[in-house]
Amino acid sequence: MIFDLPHPEFREALAAEPVIAVVRAPSIPDAPALCAALAAGGITYTELTFSTPNVVPHLRAAVAAGHRIGAGTVLTAEQAKDAIDAGVSFLVTPGLRPEVAEAAHGAGIPVVLGALTPTEVATALDLGTAAVKIFPAKAFGPGYFKDLRGPYPGLPLVASGGVNAGNAADFLAQGALAVCAGTDVVPPDVVMAGDWEEITRRAAAFMAALRTSA
């Protein structure tokens, strides 16, 4: 089955570098430095989330520094507009948010809508998602991705929630297009401390685990 989804270039690029670092921290001392530390460890996609207070200036600074930046936990059209105005490359939602999808389409950028059940996946497709984020991925396990690809063969799925160096390769092997690396790579305390060497070390370890398991 071929799904006529928008932004194939986004999926092709993500398939080539299938890890998105998802940052959830009460504060970020230097967003460009954080993204550079992740890139030094091999993770070039970074998602800064609206669960971080006053995240928009961080988005803007990271975009200005030339990093691949997405905005996550986007719940409203207003948040979507703020992120788009900051120059992000993509939007991510934790669940089905039609108004966010509409804002992304209006700006011509990809949106990755969150879903869990087969019905929610179908709704995400109807809303024009570029890929479907399955959350919480760990709760259902890598095998769930293989199950979803039965009725939805070839559907681009992104695993989010509880993904770590020990299970990321399993999600990819069972059909995920990409995985989201959270606290395993970007623990809030390490981010807030600005320990960029540790962030690079964690990113490199995550990517090494993927290569070893491939």
UniProtKB/TrEMBL annotation:
The keyword Lyase is annotated on this UniProt entry: yes
Pfam families, sorted:
Aldolase
What keywords were assigned to this record? Answer: Carbohydrate metabolism, Lyase
**Coiled coil regions in record:** none
Pathway entry: Carbohydrate acid metabolism
Question: Is this entry keyworded Oxidoreductase?
Answer: no
Oligomeric state and interaction partners are given as:
Homotrimer.
Q: Which family does it belong to?
A: Belongs to the KHG/KDPG aldolase family.
> What NCBIfam families does the entry give?
eda
Give the protein's recorded name: Bifunctional 4-hydroxy-2-oxoglutarate aldolase/2-dehydro-3-deoxy-phosphogluconate aldolase
Q: Which source organism does the UniProt entry give?
A: Catenulispora pinistramenti
